[in-house]
Amino acid sequence: MKQKLNALAPLMLSLTRIMAGLIFMAHGTQKLLNFPAAESAPAMFSLSWIAGLIELVCGALIAVGFLTRAAAFLSSGLMAFAYFLAHAPRDFFPVNNGGDAAILYCFFFLFLVCYGPGPLSLDRILGRDR
């Protein structure tokens, strides 16, 4: 059983990367394209707008697995910045301050920086990440 699960690990890494990238990208589409509809849109070139641009572009890159390590590095930093700027001042505990997703994104993207995109990625197909 353990051998079968170990054999599936690279595929699951790719699937998890794809889903994380798509969900991260959705945060950007909401901020920049108002899809799905949001109560308000951030002002152009504000910190929130720039965050949305990074979420949209890097989320797409992470989802398809292209320039994965660079996109994940930038995204990880963005999520650390977002946590300490927006969430931590509200409360010490992430479950109370709403920052648990930012922490998970931060550390998952940092994992991708170190581990790479997995086999189902443009980086792997193009021979950029072996």
TrEMBL record:
Q: Quick check: keyword rRNA-binding in the entry?
A: no
Q: Which spans are transmembrane here? A: 44-64, 71-89, 101-122
Where mainly located? membrane
One family name in Pfam for this protein: DoxX
Where is this protein found? Answer: Cell membrane
Q: What's this protein's family per the entry?
A: Belongs to the DoxX family.
Q: What is this protein called?
A: DoxX family protein
Q: How does it sit in the membrane?
A: Multi-pass membrane protein
